[in-house]
Amino acid sequence: MHRPTRLATLVAALFPCLAGAASEAISLDTVVVTGSRVEHSSFDLPAAVDLVDAERLGADQARVNASEALVAVPGITVQNRQNYAQDLQISSRGFGARSAFGVRGIRLISDGIPASMPDGQGQVATFNLDRAERIEVMRGPLSSIYGNNAGGVIQMFTADGKGAPSVETSFSAGSYGTWKADAALQGESGGVGYVIDTSRFSTDGYRQHSAAERDQSMVKLTFKPHPDGKLTLLANSFRQEALDPQGLTWDAYRSAPRSVAQGALDFNTRKSIDHQQGGVTYEQRFGQQVVQLSAYAGQRSTLQYQSIPVSSQQFSARHSGGIIDFDRDFAGLSGRWISRYDLAGGKLTGTVGFDYEQSTDDRRGYENFIGATLGVKGALRRQERDRVASFDQYAQAEWQGERWSLSGGLRHSRVAFKVEDNYLSNGDDSGTVTYDKTTPTVAALYRLTDTLNLYASAAQGFEAPTFNEMFYSSAGGSFNFALKPSTSTHYETGLKAYLGDHHRLDVALFEIDTKNELVVLSSSGGRTAYQNASGTTRRGLEVGLDSRWPNNFTSRLAYTALQARYDETFTFTTAPPAPLTKTVNAGNRLPGVAAHSLFGEVVWKHPASGFHAAVEGIARSKVYVEDTNEQPAAPAYAIANLRFGLARQYGALNIRGFLRFDNIFDRQYVGSVIVGDSNNRYYESAPGRTWLAGVSARYSF
């Protein structure tokens, strides 16, 4: 008997439910483009990739935070800090957990336009979730084909405007003075599809000093100048004002989880963001060949008040002040050629392309006091121009036969940083540094049966330090051009299976070995310094199970087990004013990473009435907060949520409403942590029991 046949017989004997799956199970499959860069069945892609569709994105939520939907994706941890000044904390297989703000280590893309800056830092808050059609999330080796990130790729796609015009408006409100209003128009006229959306969000915040207000707008236009061509124009605007409650000590969290440290109040810590971005993409088909081009440009202004320090005597000679003020211009250009051929009884798809991105910051720093008055813009302490540019070239190919799929790729990344210091009274921090890396990827998938695929993949990953990680990481709080990029080797194997007619199972096993891991040296008052550590190892298991049950029940289960540890013992010295030498032992857990995470959901729908109800469960094991693992870990927790919804159609008018209750048992728990905080304020409290209600109406003309 041939080896694959024997293997198929063995698997069928062990899992008899795989052998009899009918074609109806195919309805559980989804089409994704992340990974292969062309439309591809997720079932036949040799990678851990999940699709979050529009139904889950709008599952009785305000559509403010990506954490609302990504919580159901294994391998991804999305923590709502309850602090809009610092954005969500997103990590993938442990990458990104150390980020002091925003997202790093994960590539963010919106409608083909990067939402990550050239240095790898991004902000998922700029995603417009109101018009999102789907979000694709990929972890593992294949993400290295996207360049300077090691944790994965998160791509959001907005639906094209189609059909007769329709107008939609929605409003939601809930606990702690939270509300959001949204209005949208979509349709197609004269061959031009259009989507226009604008919203306002406001909250008083769960914790003291955590109020926020956000305005967000987007426009998307699509049309075909040629029967085989498509042009897309995009414009986005994001403005946010947010107070910054910072973290809490362990004792403060336990006794008063909604409180803030006095320093945050004294300095009125806060952050303002004004972000605009526009882009254009064009796709032209030539038979089996496709050319895709995109270009974008934008501007971002940020003003942040931190809680350091209280008198000019505490400033070191090189201190850059307690206020960050910068204006950023950024732009990019990318292109790729995709070709398809018949080869050796199968289909060969090849892709070659490039990505060029650059940004320039006019950055200033100020003292955050004048005399005895704190939290106001004082004397200038920093003035410079920071430039970063990245230029990547890549090639990948995939061959699909009857049983086998083989793929491979190669990407060369070059990231160049340049600092021009124009404030020289405290020394000259000017300098340059360039990082280069070529990363290969290989993968194979074998169709054991029509309902069971096995795959394996391997790759090298690359993460350059971001500007934020270099800013304060040298002696005296100046630039550290000596930081090294971290490099990683990824291995993954998994299976994708249909169990019977109504169940889809995805399992992935992985191991990641990293060298020169970037870790937190110190974090105080909103400012974080970094250093390179010894190697680390991540080993894990991810399981996703989607099911359809009799009587209109569906369920979703997502489980992640992750062991992330240091391989070697190392020491480091904390930052002044009270430097201490500390030891991190081999075998210590990486901070900010839970060993176990679980999401479960059961939904019941009544087709005739349009009513649905769901129960959600979320559980996570404890999380260490710093590298020595000596401080109290954020405890394990489990919470439950309930939600209800109703959708009714009255001719051309569609009306929807929902009501949800989160943390129904009113558990006190730590929602996220600030890794390595020098003041021991590691803990960011999550809310107790909360409610949210919303209504929307859409009229089609």
Account of the protein in words:
The chain is mainly beta and 701 residues long. The protein has one domain (3-700): TonB-dependent receptor, beta-barrel domain (Maltoporin, Chain A, Beta Barrel), CATH 2.40.170. 6% of the residues lie in helices and 56% in strands. It is built from seven helices and 39 strands. The strands form eight sheets. It has a 22-stranded antiparallel β-barrel. The longest helix has 12 residues, at 3-14. The radius of gyration is 25 Å and the shape is globular. The relative contact order is 0.13. The model is unreliable at 1-27 (pLDDT under 50).
Average residue pLDDT = 90
Shape category: globular
How many strands in all? 39
Major sheet description:
22 strands, antiparallel, barrel
The CATH topology annotation reads as: Maltoporin, Chain A
The CATH homology group name? TonB-dependent receptor, beta-barrel domain
Into which percentage range does the β-strand content fall? over 45%
Defining traits:
Maltoporin, Chain A, 7 helices, single chain, 701 residues, 39 strands, 5-stranded mixed β-sheet, mainly beta
Blueprint (SSEs and pairs):
Layout: H1 3-14, H2 16-19, E1 31-32, E2 40-41, E3 48-53, H3 54-57, H4 67-70, E4 76-79, E5 89-92, E6 106-110, E7 113-114, E8 132-139, E9 152-158, E10 166-174, E11 178-189, E12 192-203, E13 212-226, E14 229-243, H5 250-255, H6 262-266, E15 270-286, E16 289-305, E17 323-343, E18 346-366, E19 369-370, E20 373-374, E21 380-400, E22 404-421, E23 431-449, E24 452-463, H7 467-471, E25 486-498, E26 503-515, E27 518-524, E28 527-532, E29 536-549, E30 553-566, E31 570-573, E32 581-584, E33 596-606, E34 611-620, E35 637-650, E36 653-662, E37 670-673, E38 683-685, E39 690-700
Parallel strand pairs: 6-9
Antiparallel strand pairs: 1-2, 3-8, 4-5, 6-7, 8-9, 10-11, 10-39, 11-12, 12-13, 13-14, 14-15, 15-16, 16-17, 17-18, 18-21, 19-20, 21-22, 22-23, 23-24, 24-25, 25-26, 26-29, 27-28, 29-30, 30-33, 31-32, 33-34, 34-35, 35-36, 36-39, 37-38
